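User: Sorry, what's this?
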Amino acid sequence: WYVVQFECHYVSLYVTCTDALAAGYNVVVAVDAMRVSWSILFFQAEDGIRDLVRSRGLGDVYKRQGQDSIKARLQRPNIRKYVINSMLARLKKRKLKHFGYAVVANFSPDTSYNGKSIEQINLLKGRKHKAKEEALTVIDIMMAGGASAVFHGMGEEDVKRIMQYPFNMFASDASIRVLNAGMPHPRGYGTNARVLGKYVREEKVISLEEAIRRMTSLPAQKFQLSDRGILKEGMAADIVIFDEKEVKDMATFEKPHAFSKGFHYVIVNGVITAEKEKHLGVRAGKALYHISQ
C-alpha cells in the first residue's frame, strides 16, 4: 500500500478514495476529528507558519538547507515580493481579508504571540490593519526562526463526510506534548475522545464498534503489526477501558493542555499504566518495528 498526500478539499478526497477503492486500489487515510488543522488540511507540515510562505523558490529549501538559507532568501527583494504575493493570492482564493485564521501555537522568541492570530500580532506590532502588513509579520516570524500554528478553515460537514469513509483511521497527527508548554493544537490531547464523545455518542456519525475498529485493528493491519490491534489470547495486551457515556475531550484552543475524561484504565503490554484517569508513572511501552517479509 502507498501513502498519498492530498492537497484538496475533503469532499474531493472522499470521492478520490471511493473511486480508487472501487477500482481495486487499497486506499487508507488517516484523519483527526477537528475542523482546525496544524497547517493546510489535517496533513501537517511540522512548522505551520512555513506553510503560509511555501512557494516556488522556497519549498525545496526547507528540506535541503534549513533556516539559514530561508533567512538569506527572504532578504532578497524579488523572493520576498514573490512570497508576499503568494500569501495574498492564497488569502484572496479563500475569500478572506485578513490572516485571522492562522493562530500561532508556539513562537519561542516571544511567547506572548502564543494563542494569537497573525492578524492580532500584526496589530500588536503597530502595523496597519492590512493583509500585506500581516504578510510582512509572517516574514518577520520566519526570519526569527519560525513558529508552529493552527489554522481555522474547515467545515464540520467535511469532517463528518470523510469520517464515514470505511478505511479512514483516526490519528492525532500530533507530536509528543510537554504539559503546559506553548499553545499546541488540542488534538494532541483529545482526538480519540472527541471521536467517541462527539461523533459516536452525541451525533451518531459512526457506531461505537466502527470507531474502535478504526483506532485499533485497522491501523494494526495496515502497518502489519501482527500481534496487536485486537483482544485475543496471545496478542499484546494493549487495552483501554473507558465509559462510553462519560468519555469527552477537554482540551480547547484556549486551554489545550487538558486530559480527556472517561478513560478509567490504560494497559500497555499487559501493565496497568493509567488508573482512574491518573498516570501511575509506569512506562511499559516499547518501539515497534516492522520487518518486511
